[in-house]
Amino acid sequence: MKTFCGRANPTTGAMEWLEEDEDYDYHQEIARSRYADMLHDKDRNTKYYQGIRAAVSRVKERGEKAIVLDIGTGTGLLSMMAASAGADFCYAIEVFRPMANAAVKIVEKNGFCDKIKVINKHSMEVTVGPGGDMQCRANILVTELFDTELIGEGALPTYEHAHKYLVEEGCEAVPHRARVYVQLVESRRMWSWKKLFPVHVKAEDGEKIIVSPSEMENCPGVPSVCDIQLNQMPSSDFTVLSDVVTMFSVDFSKPVRSASTHYRVELEPVKSGKAQVVLSWWDIDMDPSGMINCTMAPYWVKPTSASQWRDHWMQCVYFLPREEPVLQGEKVSLTACRDAYSVWYKLQKARGKEENKADVRVESPVCRCQAHLLWNRPRLGELNDQNRTHQYIKALMTVLHTDSICLCISDGSLLPVLARYLGAKQFFKANHLEDKIKIIEARPELLTPSQLEDKKISVLLGEPFFTTSLLPWHNLYFWYARTAVATHLASNVTVLPQAASLHMMIVEFQDLWRIRSPCGTCEGFDVQIMDDMINNSLNFRESKEAEPHPLWEYPCKSLSDPQEVLTFDFRKTVPQQCLGTEGSVSLLRKGKSHGAVLWMEYHLTADISVSTGLMDISNEKGNCEWNPHCKQAVYFFSSVIDSETLSDLPSAVTYAINFDPKTGEIAMDFKL
Ligand code: SAH
């Protein structure tokens, strides 16, 4: 079946109807899923296996039959481990139909048909008893339902239900328990993801400061979890203010309650400073003794942690409602509140117990100022990047005159305010700061002369930035908008940026390659069916697509020089014909060519450019430094060439890259 889906094209801005196969969504889900990453997570897999073996042995030692309930079986992996460990029978529950189908095939291929029953249901729909899905309650409960926040995927309600209806009292659980850890830190970098810092503008008539309105200062922000690869955050970017403490723990072998609750700990700051964020991660003990432990602790807590890379479990950054000064040795109390699916934090001066009881209720953070809805965390970080702002100010100073009439096309941009402070006479579209700035709520093509007070625009500005952009080139929407407003522009209009260029580089990833790499066998089980399924989903559309990744979190080294592949001249309108290029890029270093990274650079003026991708290649090894606020496009090659194993470097990768102005899409092809 085909369905038509309406959407605004992120690049051209045009409304379009896409014919989508009904399977498109689930292919996307599988292609972008973390199953491959989980199967590559050796540390996780071996510890689950050990925990499952130990649990089966304990049950057998009691002289009981080992009946396993595996909730969220995915590929069937944990059930196959249990069956191999001697379990008498496993009920493998999986709600996502394509996965349940895959599990059936994988279980069959590995010869466990008679020991494992795959049930394609949500665990809360499973029935027990004669004629039900399960003959009887299980005495071993195995799951892997955790996200970076531990509970975000609904582990608590699932466990609560399972203990009530699906497992025996006193059952064995793998994992046996989880603990959530916290550490209080001060970090200008992370705090810049929540707050707008004052922007200093040096104008001719003195320094001006743009400050955020008080509603934004006091806004708790948004409730969505901020999960990052904390191991990529250099220690110079934060100051530890407290030791690591256990915030709360969950015993999975006992009845679990999912109802909202709170936990409180007293912290004694090890340093004075400004408490801004709570860093958090968890660990799980696979057995009651705690001997089999799998931890997400970051590098400064557990120096070997970086050795097990994983993307399906990272670490969390929680923003305190307000920055709180703390003094070394002067106790503070940290409250974690949670509902069934998420956690949030509050810090208070430690006082007597009775006094504190009154105000334990902390509301879940809901943005009241609107700014956190307009500016997501990386975007706030970008707006707070002083070097970047400085580049824009420098560029604005060269193009603005006292009689400039400016039009800015970008989402939630500070450019109008900057330009206003730098002396532009009149401004259209921006914030509400001054009456000299007028916001026009209209699509560029619907702009009328009267909305511009019959004036011609002398300076057209954009960062460009649009909230609808996923891939770097989606911000070319600026070019389409510029084309749509062409009749309103003065003949000698200045366009800032005057051009953009697309850049490309071949890289070897330290770890990110795993998410697209086949697994083959996992702990001795053949999971190739899963590999094939992911591959099939990746190739569901005939042409392969680039995917967005924030590469500051995913180290890689360059194997080629960065290369400019396409330029887009914003001084002219969008052309009718395709912009295409073909060429080859030489490989300079030995290594595995995992893929190409692509990013945009904006040429604000002839000699001021900003990069949304590569910032620096740090040393002879080719380690790359990426813009920390932007996602870059990654195109994974279908086969990896390892030049380490070749005596001669393969000389080059050839490429063909084509921009189609009708669709706004960039198609690419690479040959190694
Ligand atoms: N157990 C596998 C896969 C874990 S991923 C492994 O460890 O490799 C978690 C899986 O659980 C997903 O496939 C998801 O669809 C499924 N799931 C989550 N909650 C569920 C529930 N309550 N009932 C059934 N399946 C669930």
Point out poorly predicted stretches: 430-434
Helicity level, as a percent range?
A: 10-25%
Largest sheet: 7 strands, antiparallel
Separation, N- and C-terminal Cα atoms: 37 Å
Number of domains: 4
CATH architecture of the largest domain: Distorted Sandwich
CATH superfamily of the largest domain: Hnrnp arginine n-methyltransferase1
CATH class of the largest domain: Mainly Beta
Which term fits the overall shape?
globular
- Could you tell me the mean pLDDT? 91
Polypeptide structure, described:
- There is one protein chain.
- The protein is α+β, with helices and mostly antiparallel strands.
- It folds into four domains: 34-177, Rossmann fold (3-Layer(aba) Sandwich); 178-366, Hnrnp arginine n-methyltransferase1 (Distorted Sandwich), CATH 2.70.160.11; 385-496, 3-Layer(aba) Sandwich (Rossmann fold), CATH 3.40.50.150; 499-510 and 555-671, Hnrnp arginine n-methyltransferase1.
- The protein has 15 helices and 38 strands.
- The strands form ten sheets. Strands 8, 11, 12, 13, 15, 16 and 17 form a seven-stranded antiparallel beta sheet that branches. Strands 25, 28, 29, 30, 32, 33 and 36 form a seven-stranded antiparallel beta sheet that branches. Strands 5-4-3-6-7 form a five-stranded parallel beta sheet, sandwiched between helices.
- Helix 1 packs across helix 15 (528-538).
- The longest helix is centred in the N-terminal third of the chain and has 20 residues, at 42-61.
- It is globular, with a radius of gyration of 28 Å.
- The two termini are 37 Å apart.
- S-adenosyl-L-homocysteine is lined by residues 38, 71-75, 77-78, 93-96, 99, 122-123, 144-145, 154, 158.
- It catalyses: L-arginyl-[protein] + S-adenosyl-L-methionine = N(omega)-methyl-L-arginyl-[protein] + S-adenosyl-L-homocysteine + H(+).
- Pfam families: PrmA (PF06325), PRMT_C (PF22528).
- Keywords: Chromatin regulator, Cytoplasm, Differentiation, Methyltransferase, Nucleus, Repeat, S-adenosyl-L-methionine, Transcription, Transcription regulation, Transferase.
